[in-house]
Amino acid sequence: MRLLIIAVGHKMPDWVSTACHEYSKRMP
């Protein structure tokens, strides 16, 4: 899942990257 976030993080705005990071922290 982290690889997906990293992959899309380079193509998306900063707020999207932040949202993905927050979402990943909420996952068990």
Description of the structure:
The protein is mainly alpha-helical. 75% of the residues lie in helices and 0% in strands. It is built from two helices and no strands. It has helices spanning 2-9, 14-26. Helix 1 runs antiparallel to helix 2. It is flat, with a radius of gyration of 9 Å.
| Element order: H for helix, E for strand | HH
Q: What portion of residues is helical?
A: over 70%
- Tell how many strands the DSSP assignment holds: 0
Radius of gyration: 9 Å
Shape, principal axes of CA atoms = flat
Low-confidence stretches: none
Please report the number of helical segments.
Answer: 2
DSSP strand (E) fraction?
A: under 5%
- Give the structural class: mainly alpha
Mean pLDDT: 70
Largest sheet: none
> How far is it from the N-terminal to the C-terminal residue, by CA?
12 Å
